[in-house]
Amino acid sequence: MKYISTRDKSKEFEFKDVFLKGLADDGGLFIPKNLKKFTEKELNEFSNLNYIELAYKIISPFVDDFISGKDLEDLISKSYSTFREKNVIKLINVGDRKVLELFHGPTLAFKDVAMQLLGNFYEYYLSKEEDKINIIVATSGDTGAAAIEAIRGKKNINIFVLHPHNRVSPVQRKLMTTVKDKNVYNIAINGNFDDCQNLVKSMFADHNYAKSIRMSGVNSINWARIIAQSVYYFYSYYLIKKDRGPINFSVPTGNFGDVYAGYLAKKMGLQIGKLIVATNQNDILHRAISRGQYYSEKVQETNSPSMDIQIASNFERLIFDLNDEDDHETSSVMQKIKSEKKYDLDQSKLDKIRKDFLSSSADEKKVISLIKKVYENHKEILDPHTAIGYGGFDDVELEGTNIVLSTAHPCKFPDAIFNAINIKPDLPDELKYISNEKENFDLLDNDINIIKQHIKEKIQ
Ligand SMILES: *Cc1c(COP(=O)(O)O)cnc(C)c1O
Hints:
Blueprint: E1 3-5, E2 8-13, H1 15-21, E3 30-32, H2 40-45, H3 51-63, H4 69-80, E4 90-94, E5 97-101, H5 111-128, E6 133-138, H6 142-151, E7 157-164, H7 170-177, E8 184-190, H8 193-205, H9 207-212, E9 215-216, H10 223-239, E10 247-252, H11 257-267, E11 272-279, H12 284-291, E12 293-295, H13 315-322, H14 327-340, E13 342-344, H15 347-356, E14 357-361, H16 364-378, H17 384-391, E15 401-406, H18 414-421, E16 442-445, H19 448-459
Helix pairs in contact: 3-4, 3-10, 4-5, 5-6, 5-10, 6-7, 10-11, 16-17, 16-18
The protein binds pyridoxal-5'-phosphate.
């Protein structure tokens, strides 16, 4: 499979470029030039596969010029051996909907599903080529831990994670800062998540600097993460054997990565009805889908911090589709969003979006009341992000089966849970030890030169 950038279709890329670079040099996002569409027959043949076998079938067309056959099978199998569930995910019934638990990986959030695979792609690449890589990533909590867990201990690769000082939950922080491997560097920034993200962006934008440290990124626009995530949409479909009808998913959404993976599964032929883009009160995507107003506002801090964004980076991939795959048009829309912080979607684009997507939003009070209601009625504790996904189905009538994506274990967000139901959710036994471990991180000012210097010194 060959890839192109959403902002310039004239150049072709291989999977290796796509996962190592993350972002195309022209600022666009990578997408397949021609997407593989599975036939009815192929889709039927998938129905009895276990998670690893299915992942192989879905992922291999995307990566076959980089890794294939037994190598790929082994890599996928190794990636998911770190999960506490044999088939990676778990589907449970909660009231009239199903909840797809995606948090059984090492850092208790769905991000492990993609990041474990990505970590092993790097290792495979470095076993073939003489190269040294430094991954630099900003996190509001979950990404950093998942990335560290995926990279720690691997040869010829370091990871630097920037988190906002005192603004991630203690469990989130400890999952990052108690890791002892020598190739892991945690940096706490005196600032907020946007500051961290801007620091990483300006390091990438400084091509000389980025080149000099062989910088690579693993943030949510990385295509390798998207394909890994599309697998569980397929797998959950096959878990429902009887009377399933079309399947609808409600997806707690920040950067539009996870829900885009569902859209990708649909484009590859999976019978998905609607995808609900469930947001917290940072509801730019809800305003875009319900009213056509993709207008960026100030980020508000909420009890679902992994969804606190005002620019949904992966939305560019949908904008490309909405503009009939016109790279020039996509490029000018993205320039406009950058300069004016707004984009108006006309009725024909909205009609197109609504064939596949619906949207919802929940403010802080609603999130707490959702956690409470679900616990009282069904004795299940949902984390705040998942609760928002659960609420996504409240106001719509859809044909078929409704599945909520559960993106994090409730113990990662104990304050919100305690606030809702007076219970402090426990860490899984294997992770209890982190509470007493020594933490390791450097606290640095929000100053690009200080950070650049710091990273250079560490990798000497
Ligand atoms: C990252 C994250 C999300 C948002 O996912 P996107 O792909 O950015 O839309 C939702 N919930 C949790 C727990 C997360 O960590």
